[in-house]
Predict the 3D structure of the following.
Amino acid sequence: MAPALAAAPSSSICGACIPTACRFEARSTVPAPRFLRNRPRAEGRATAAWPLKAGLWDSLRSGFLKSNNTTETVEPPAPLEVEEPLPEELVLLERTLPNGSTEQIIFSSAGDVDIYDLQALCDKVGWPRRPLSKIAASLRNSYLVATLHSVIRSSETEGEERKQLIGMARATSDHAFNATIWDVLVDPSYQGQGLGKALMEKVIRTLLQRDINNITLFADNKVVDFYKNLGFEVDPQGIKGMFWYPKF
């Protein structure tokens, strides 16, 4: 697949390919995708601060701090909380189809993914099938799930619309320093329109807005150039990705 297209089926780890580790370094602001409209800024990110070191808690002996003549009950301080970032939704592209219907391509970071729709999308790009329970768990445990949906509104019947999942990317993270992007895919019938690039730019921008600057991913050789054009580097500063596989 040509590098300029949206990420190919081999852009994620699977049993059929040996991926290359890539890292994104946040040197400057990621340029806004060509189709983007104004977007709300994320309001912050959820974080929980460790109240005190474990060694100190060990010395408290189950919540009681003993002095010479008195015993005082010590309540652990409540963890600090920051507002959850607001999910973002915006129209990347709007066009009129030959039959007069209107189509919008909508980006969302709300993580609204039906696992059966995702499985159908994976089938379209030729990925091997994975258990639905594991797909659901991977989405549930992801730090960020971004989607592209096509919404087609009929020109003949008012209020009639068809919504279809055409792209997705997700990221796992330690919620502080690092994030890894996984499962980047775009429906083959929508590839070659810059949507894969727009999706990745929005994912990167969202992670940077949450103060996560060390972003990595795994890519097959056929799409390495696609990710290089987005700012990723292969083996930066001599860092090598290492993998452990079960030996059966």
The CA atoms of residues 99 and 155 lie 8 Å apart. Residues 1-18, 28-67 have pLDDT under 50 and may be disordered. The radius of gyration is 22 Å. The chain is about 20% helix and 25% strand.
